[in-house]
Design a protein that fits this description.
The complex is a heterodimer of chains A (about 260) and B (about 325).
Chain A lengths: L1 H8 L4 H4 L6 E10 L2 E11 L4 E5 L6 H9 L6 E6 L2 E2 L5 H5 L3 E3 L12 H9 L13 H8 L14 H14 L4 E5 L7 H16 L3 E5 L3 H7 L2 E6 L2 E6 L1 H6 L1 H8 L1 H8 L1
Parallel strand pairs in A: 3-8, 3-9, 6-7, 7-8
Antiparallel strand pairs in A: 1-2, 1-4, 4-5, 9-10
Helix pairs in contact in A: 5-7, 6-7, 7-8, 11-12
Chain B lengths: L1 H22 L2 H26 L7 H17 L5 H23 L4 H21 L1 H4 L13 E2 L6 E2 L3 H23 L2 H11 L1 H6 L4 H27 L9 H15 L6 H15 L4 H18 L7 H17 L1
Antiparallel strand pairs in B: 1-2
Classes of the chains: A alpha/beta (about 260), B mainly alpha (about 325).
InterPro entries (chain A): AAA+_ATPase, ABC_AA/LPS_Transport, ABC_transporter-like_ATP-bd, P-loop_NTPase
Pfam families (chain A): ABC_tran
GO molecular function, one term (chain A): ATP hydrolysis activity
Amino acid sequence: MAIDILMSNEKVSPARAVAAASAISCAKLSKSFGGLHALRDVTFQIAPGEILGILGPNGAGKTTFINVLSGMLHADSGTVHIYDDDVSAMSMAHRARYGLFRTFQNSRSSEELTGYELLRLASLTPNKTKSSKTYTPDELLEIFGLKRFAGIILSDLPYGIQKMMNLAAVALCRPKVLLLDEPFQGVAEAEIERLSKVIRHFASEGVAVGLVEHNVRSVMRLCNRVIVLDAGAMIFEGRGEDAVRDPVVQTAYLGQRFAGELNG
Amino acid sequence: MVERFGYVGWVLLLGGLVGIYLLNDGYYTTVALLMMLWAILAIGLNFILGYAGYFHLGLGAFYGLGAYGAAALGTKYQMPMIVALIVMPIAGAILSAIIGPLLLRTRDLYFAVATLALGMIISDVTNNWVSVTGGPIGIGGIQRPGVIGFGAFSIDGRTLPGMFIIVSTIFVALMIAAAIARKSNFVLILRGIKSDDLMTRSFGFPTTVYKVAAFAIAGAISALGGVLYAHIVQYISPEPFTFFAASFQAFVVLAVGGLGSLWGPVLGSVLLTGLPEFLDLDPHMKLIIYGAVLLIVTLVLPKGLASAAQVISRRRKTAMKEGTE
């Protein structure tokens, strides 16, 4: 409910979402581990305010993709731009200075920090980019409805709350581009709705969101556009509804035979 | 609860120091000096181990560096103590900043072993580089500072009470600095690293830089401890800077007192250095009690003595809750 309050204060500008410049773009991104090609020549972009779903069967290279985009892993070849800045050679910490942030698949639960301390840590980010809004940890706890959990050690919190805390922490970093690695994994249905609202709120502020997710239904509801990866290559780009009907995508998910039965 | 204990802590600390000074007993003063030395090492270790979570087992190297540096400055170059107090912590920090980036590429047990090796190298050097360190015989005749100040406010650094005032002043200043640091953004980032290095990097912090800084602070504070040791004892040899005599002992003091807490180093040092001396136990009994304390604290209070207040208040809360339900 607290999120709704915030949404009503928000002046969403639709023009922003269709701005010509892409917030993040990558060209011919490749990465291999030994003989395994985890990413092959992936080229794509996310516009400011857009929520892009990144789908694919297990082992398709989705997490590698996010790791390479965020700078946690270095690409073998290809470039990554954040707006006009080439960040290809930069480390993850350095890319954050340009407004690129990410969350991790496993909730980074900690026995060391309380929720409030995590948010305070995030608010110290050396992110140089200007954002229209800057929140304090207290404001964000209010917005996310997490106030009563603030003083508790993170690892003592329920999994869904931990994920909300992590998202709140990233929100404090004032991202321009936000990459989310399976934000709904292990989260209860009611909390998925809440998380979705928060993600939409990011986008309404002009943040470009990239979302890796197994939960196809949530992706369909949230994302303007999806890309599908298989064996490290991009096999589809377009609307979510079309992706489900695409024969190549069906084959990648179900295998040749089952996909044939589905269509036949 | 913790805040309240903090207030009590400062009163007890200052009261204790004043009390020992007024008691003016050579033995108790010496024991108090030793306790402060161990607490200083533990305060240094707290930065890299307590906050950043890196098992630094080579603290003795920097402790030794400070002590030998102070001895050399004092006996070879006739420099006053104040020079060593300024120069050696800087040297400790610079040495840390040079080797830190190499050592901090490793973590967990690997880091522990790497720092352990560092301590062993320094032990070897102090034993064998006879022309500089005096080898196993060591260096004697380290001069304490003379009279400082004027008239009624003067301190005679040559005497034990004078030395006690000097060390106490430095110690209290260090405790205040540690208390301020503990609330700082820098320490929050270190704790973020301990909690999750990757996540902290994803927030934009170059974590290696912060870890090296914590390592350098530990090195500088240990070197400061070494300088004080050299001037208290006035004679140094390789033995007090070996692994078991220094690095391991500092680790135990901090672990028993409480990793990452402000008062842990003091509590650990009082319990492990002070009490066995004051109780005047026979050496064998001392070792047994020492072991027992270590075991009990690890089992009952895994976060150290400083967490006792928290643990008790939590127990009471749960007891109350169970009572009402």
